[in-house]
Specification:
heterodimer; A: 60 residues; mainly beta; three-stranded antiparallel sheet; B: 140 residues; alpha+beta; 4 helices; globular
C-alpha cells in the first residue's frame, strides 16, 4: 500500500500483504488505486509494460 | 477522470480525453501518459500491466535529476505546464513525487491547497469497499 499526501489516496497491489480480490496471472501486475479529488498522476513512462486503466468509480 | 498520451515526435497531435466508469484507457509501453481526476470526489480504478516489473519514469522528476532545473527548456516547461495545470508538481529541491494536485480544481471544489481532507474512501460504494477489505458504509 502506498500513501501520498498529494493526489493519491492509496494504491493496493496483489503483492502486498493486503487483500485484493483479483487474480493476477504471472508476468503481470495489477494495482487498485484511489485518486483523491483534483489528484494527478504526473506524466510518466512505463519502460517495460503497456498499461490498462479500468475505471471503476467516479466520473471522468 | 481525464487521461492523456504524448505521442512520439512527428505525430500530428497528442491526445487528452475523458475516461468514464466502465471504460478502459490504454497507455502503450514507453509512451508518456498522465491521469487527472478533475472531479470534487475521489475515483477508483484498476491499473493492469503486462509485466510484473513495469517500471516508471516520472519526467518532471527526471528533468530535475538531470540537473536541468535552470535550463531554458525546463524553464519553458515550468512556465507552460507547472504554472498552468500542474501547479503543484514538485520543485527540484523537494522529495520526488509521482502525484500532484490541480490547484484550479481545488479552488473550484472549495478544497484546501493541501488537498481534500481524509482519504476519500468514504465515498466508495460498498462493492468497491469489499475489494479494499473495508467495512460496509454505516457499519464502522
Amino acid at each position: 500500500m502506498v500513501e501520498d499526501n498529494a493526489g493519491l489516496t492509496f494504491q493496493m497491489t496483489r503483492g502486498s500483504n493486503e487483500f485484493l480480490a483479483t487474480l493476477t496471472p504471472p508476468g503481470s501486475a495489477q494495482f487498485l488505486t484511489v485518486l483523491k479529488p483534483c489528484g494527478i498522476i504526473l506524466p510518466h513512462v512505463h519502460p517495460r509494460a503497456t498499461e490498462l486503466y479500468s475505471i471503476l468509480f467516479g466520473r471522468g | 477522470m481525464s487521461a492523456g498520451i504524448a505521442q512520439e515526435n512527428g505525430s500530428a497531435q497528442n491526445i487528452t480525453f475523458p475516461v468514464e466508469v466502465g471504460e478502459v484507457f490504454v497507455a502503450p509501453q514507453g509512451l508518456l501518459h498522465f491521469n487527472h481526476n478533475q472531479e470534487c470526489h475521489a475515483n477508483a480504478f484498476f491499473q493492469s500491466f503486462n509485466s510484473n516489473d513495469p517500471g516508471a519514469v516520472n519526467v518532471i522528476n527526471a528533468l530535475a535529476n538531470l540537473g536541468m532545473a535552470n535550463a531554458d527548456g525546463a524553464a519553458a516547461i515550468k512556465a507552460s505546464t507547472a504554472e498552468g495545470v500542474m501547479v503543484s508538481a514538485p520543485p527540484p529541491d523537494m522529495k520526488p513525487s509521482a502525484f500532484g494536485l490541480d490547484k484550479h480544481c481545488l479552488m473550484r471544489c472549495n478544497l484546501p491547497d493541501t488537498g481534500a481532507p481524509g482519504d476519500g474512501l468514504e465515498t466508495l460504494p460498498d462493492a468497491l469497499r469489499v475489494l479494499y477489505n473495508l467495512p460496509p458504509l454505516g457499519k464502522h
